[in-house]
Amino acid sequence: MQEQDAKRPFLLESWLEFDDIIAERPEVRRLLFDPVTGLPTTPLLFPRIKSLLEERGEISILCLNIVKYSKIEEIYGWDVFDEVMCQVASSLEHITGTELRDSDIVAELMISGNSFVVLLAPPRTTDCMDCESLKDLSQRVEIRVREDLKQALDSSVYPKFGCYIGSAIARKDENVRLERLVHTTLEAALAESDSREAVDAEQRKARLEDIISSGNVRTLVHPIFRIADLGIVAYEALSRGPEASEFERPDKLFKVAYDADLVVRLERLCRKRAFATAESLPEGRMLFINIEREAVADPELQDIMFTTILENSKVKPEDIVLEITERSAITDFVAFRATLEYLRTLGFRVAVDDGGAGYGSLQCLAEVHPEWLKIDMSLICDIDTDDVRRSLVASIVMFAERMGVKLVAEGIERVEQLNVLRELGVEYGQGFLFCEPVEPYPADEDVTPSL
Predict the structure, then answer these.
(1) 182-188: Cβ within 8 A, 24+ apart
(2) Who contacts 361 (Cβ-Cβ below 8 Å, separation ≥6)?
(3) Structure confidence at residue 185 (pLDDT)
(4) SS3 string of 48-73?
(5) pLDDT tens, 194-231?
(6) Distances (CA, A) of 405 to 316, 320, 397, 428
(7) Strand partners for 290
(8) What is the pLDDT of residues 41-58, one digit of tens each?
(9) Are 359 and 330 in contact, with CB atoms under 8 Å apart?
(10) CB-based burial label for 122 (10 Å; 0-12, 13-18, 19+)
(11) In the structure, how many helices (H) and strands (E) does the chain have?
C-alpha cells in the first residue's frame, strides 16, 4: 500500500516546521510517520505536549486500541489489517470537528502498530479537563469509530476486530522528566482500554458458553481431491458457530474458547457433531476430523473414541483421520504420543495440519509420525510465481515420499497453483478452486470440478 499524502489536518509538519528537512531526508518520514496511515507517531507530539504543560499545567489523551481476534494476516492477508488501520485513521479524521475538535491531534503510538493516540486540545470553558467529561468523550469516539468500521469493512471481516478507547490526564510535575510523564500517561490510557476489552471478553465468554450449552454448532464438509483425476477421496469436517454471528468462523470460535478456557468443552461438542456427520459418509470416503492439540490431553478422548466405535457400526476407524491443528503448542509430547498411539491401535489415522508453516508444526511432525500431512496454504498461495515456495514444497514432497506420508495441499484457489502441484508430485489437494465447504454431503458428490 502506497504512502498517503501528508497534507491532512491531523499531521504536524506545519506545526513543527520541518517540511524542508523531510523533503531533503525522506528517510526521516519513514522513521516518524506510519507508512500505511500517513499519521505521525507519538514522538512528534512532544513539542505540543510540552507547550500545553507549560501553558495549562496538564494534558489529556485518548488511546484507541485495535484488537485482532484471529489470525487476520494468515487468513485474509496483511493488507486487510492495513485497511482496518486506514479506516480507523479516516474515521478519526472524519469526526474531527464533531466528537473531536479541530485542534485535537491524532497520531499513532508507533510505526505499524495497532494503537492510536489523540492529544486533546484544552477545554474551552474550564481550566482543567473534567474526568467524567473525558470518559464520556472516549465512549462517543469509540462508538463512532465502531460504526464507521462496520459500514466500511466487509461483514465477514468486521467481527474479527475490537475497538477500545482509554483516557488519561497528566499534570505538570517538575520532578518527572517529560518522556517519563508521557510514557506513564500512555500506559494509564492503554490500561483503561485493556480493562474495557476485558469486560467485552467476559461477555463473549458468556455468549460462547450459551452456544456450547445449547449445542449450537454446525458441521460443514470440504472435499479432498486426488489431483491426478480430481476424484474425491475424503472430506474434512469443519465446525462453524451460529450462522451470521461473530462466532461463525472457527478462528474466532476457538480463539475465544482458548481465552475463556472453554476449548475442551467446545472440542467435545464439535467432535460429537463430526462423528454424527461421519454416519452418512459416502462409501469409500474418509473423514478428516480436526482435533485441538490441547484436547488430545482430554482424559475422555480415548473413552469417547472407543465407545463411538462400539455404539456406531456405521463409523469405521479406518475411515477417520484425526487432524491435529496448530492453534496451541504441545507441552507434553510423551502423553501426546501415548494418546495418539492408543487411537492408532483402534484403527484411526493421524494427520498434521499446517505443514511447513513454522517450528511448531515441524516438531509435531517429528514427534507424531503422521500418516497424512497437510501443506499449509501460506506455501501454496503464490507457488506458481514464487521459486522459494516451489522449492520448499518440492522438499516436502521428497520428505513425504521417503517417510511414506500422504500429502494434501491446502488453499488451492487457482488452476496455475494446481498445475504446479501436479508437476511437483503432490497427490491430494483441497481448496476453493474445487468448491467451498458444504452442508451436508453433496448429493452424488456433484462438486467434482471440470478443470
Answers:
(1) 182/42, 182/45, 182/46, 182/49, 185/59, 185/61, 186/42, 186/61, 186/63, 186/109, 186/117
(2) 326, 352, 353, 354, 355, 376
(3) 94
(4) HHHHHHHHHCEEEEEEEEEEECCCHH
(5) 998 888 889 999 999 999 999 999 999 999 999 999 99
(6) 21, 16, 9, 12
(7) 323
(8) 888 888 889 889 988 889
(9) no
(10) middle
(11) 16, 12
Neighbouring CB atoms inside 10 A of 372's CB total 23
Give the span between the Cα atoms of 188 and 183, in whole angstroms. Answer: 9
Q: What residue type is assigned to position 218 of the chain?
A: R
Q: Which domains, from first to last, does the chain contain?
A: 13-206 (3.30.70.270), 216-445 (3.20.20.450)
DSSP codes of every residue in 315-355 = --GGGEEEEE-SSS--S-HHHHHHHHHHHHHTT-EEEEEEE
Q: Residue 117 in contact with residue 106, Cβ under 8 Å? A: yes
Evaluate the CA torsion angle 142, 145, 151, 157 in order and state its sign. negative
Which tens digit of pLDDT belongs to each residue from 365-410? 777 889 999 998 889 999 999 999 999 999 999 999 999 999 999 9
Separation CA 61–CA 171 (nearest Å): 12
Q: Position of cell 462466532?
A: 247
- 330 C-beta neighbours (distance < 10 Å), count: 18
The C-alpha atoms of residue 318 and residue 344 are separated, in whole angstroms, by 9
Strand partners, 402: none
